[in-house]
Structure formats: C-alpha cells, structure tokens
Amino acid sequence: MDVAVREPCEDSADNELEEEETVEEEEKAKATAEDFAEAAEAEKGSSADSDSDLETEGISDTHGLGEVVKDTLYLGFCKALNVVPASCFLRQENAPELSLQHRGLGPQGARALASTLTYNSYIKRLDLRDNGLCGAGAEALADVLSKNSSISDVDLSENQLGAPGIQVLCAALAVNQVVQKMQLAGNGLDEQAAKYLADLLLVHTGLKSLDLSYNQLNDQAGETLGPALAENTGLTELNMSWNHLRGLGAIAFARGLEVNIFLKVLDISYNGFGDLGASAVAEALKANNVLEELNMSNNRISAAGALSLGLGLRGNQTLRILVVSRNPMQSEGCFGLLKSVQDSPASGLELLDISDIEVNRKFDDLASSVKVILPGLCIKRGAHRVEYKRVVANLQTVPSSICT
User: Fold this and answer.
1) In which residue ranges is the amino acid composition biased (Acidic residues) (predicted)?
2) What φ, ψ does residue 153 adopt, rounded to 5°?
3) pTM confidence score
C-alpha cells in the first residue's frame, strides 16, 4: 500500500509573496473580531430573557447571534487566506472537543481557524494532529493559546513544527498556563527545540502531561531536559519514547528523574539508554519515591544493566509497573530483576513486563517462589494473541494467561 509522505515545510520567496498579498484582506477580517466580542457579550447579557421567548416559540438557541458572527468571521478569514473552510469545524465549534485530524489545513488553514478559537469558550480539547501546520501555523495557534481560557488539552502531533514552531508555542504556554496536556509527537524536535521545552518545564506548573515521542531528541537534548525535569513542579506524565536519548544525555535525564517529586508515569522506551543509562535510572529509583510506571523497553540493556536496575528496585516501594521488554538482557538479566523484587517484600511492583525475552527454567522456578510472597505481581513474558484483561487504569493490556 502506498503511503503519502508530506513534503517538509519550506519558506520560499513565492510563499512570502502570497502572504504579503493576503495581509490587507486578513487585517480586514481581524477588524471584525472586536465586533464579535461585543456581540457575544450582548448575547450573554440577554440570554435569560431570550431563553423564555425561545421556549415559548419552540425555537432552538443552538445557533445564536454569537455563533453567526463567529461563522461569518471564520468564513471571511478563509476567503482572505484563500483556503477551503472546514465544514466540520462549523459543526463542532460549540462542542467540548474539536477534532480535525488529517484535514490538510496547512499554515493558512490554521490562521483561519485561529480567528475564532481565541474567543471560543466551549472547546476544551483541540486535536489538530497531522495537518502540516509548520512553524507559521504554530505561530497562529500560539496566539490562540496565549489568550484562550478554556482549551486545556492540545494535540499538535505530526505537524512538522520543528524548533521554530515549538519556540512560539512554549512562549505562549508560559504566558497563559491553562493547558494541562500537550501532545507534540512526530514534529522533528531536536536539541534546539529541547531548549525551549526545558524553559517551559521550569515555569509552567500547570502542565500535567507531555508527549514528546517520535522526535529527534538526542543526547544533547537529554542534557538540556534533565536539569529541567529535576526542577519541574507539575508534570505527572511524560512520554519520551522513540527518540535518541543515549550516552551522557541519558545519564543527565536519569539524574533529573532522581530528584523529581511529581512525575508518576515515564515512557523512555525505544531510545538508547544502554547499561550506563540503566545504571543511572537505577540510582534514580533508589531516591525517587513518586514514580509509579516506567517503560524502558528496547533500550539496549544487557544483563549487566538489568542487574543494576535490580539494585534500584531493592530500595523502591512506589514503582508499580516496570516494562523492560525487547532488551538483550537474556534470562540472566530477567532473573536478577525478579530476584531483587523477591528480596524486597515491601515492593509495590504489580507488573513486570519482560516480553520477547527468552527465559529458562531457573527463572520459572524463581517466578513461582515470588508468587508466594507477592501474589498480586503479574509477570508478562510473551506476546501471544490471547484474551486480555486490564491490569491497571491507563496501562497497556496484559494477556491474562501469561501472568504468573
């Protein structure tokens, strides 16, 4: 099956000329924004009286004056920017969630959308995944996020935002800290973008969930984000999977985890932590008494790294879920991890995921012994297609037949 690949965002002379040609019309459309605000306020002031009239006459107030003005404003911007209006937006503008995934909005479409989002008090969740917004589109949405007081959940994944887009978004979120959940997966974010993200983590205490998966955050990014994670006082869930954290960057990131006192869920799977990174995470687990879920699958961790992780588990009582699947730790590493759990009767571990790692009879015997001490512990060993059950809320489903 052919997969369409979107071209990278480029700032060409032709694009600049087109933007200049639409500036005058765009400004005219913006001039109506104040009229909308006044109309919306007038509508609120008369809502009590109008409700009784509408009930009497059997007329629904689902598309009042404010909505008409908003639609007119949006359509005016679409015309000025020469973009096709998104009819689904007109249908969802009063819903708590606006979902416009895969619509090909582009930067101009984002500008048109932003014209009314600033004043929208209905939408709580904004999903614009995969729309080729680029830096220019991010700039338009940043203006919205710096002013809107209701949007708290934003998904801008797969939009080729790059460092310039993240820069303006982080600046906006620092000014208006209403957003609690931000998804930025697949945006080509690198070490430069990490600097803006680190600054945001230092000032935005209201941000609870951040998804930075499928980016290009490397060892330099890890050295930047680690200290910021150490100082952050709000984030409870962080997804850093499918990046390039390794070497000194992985160690610096783990040191940030060591002193963080808010993060509960961390996904660093599909990076390159290796044994040195695993050892740094082990030190973090000894001191951290908050983290509950840790995913380190596919991180080049050998048996030696697994034994280090085991030492970290011995002094930890809060970690409930540990995922180390698809690591070359072999049965020896899995045995070392489980032995550490056995030697820690106060362990709070509920799930140990060692999927796709072959284990021997010695491990099986140990698993049986641990089951007596910790009957609630589930050990996920394989990836069989069997009936599933949910172990913990917000956690991956686990095959019920392989929990031992």
Assistant:
1) 10-26
2) -135, 115
3) 0.84
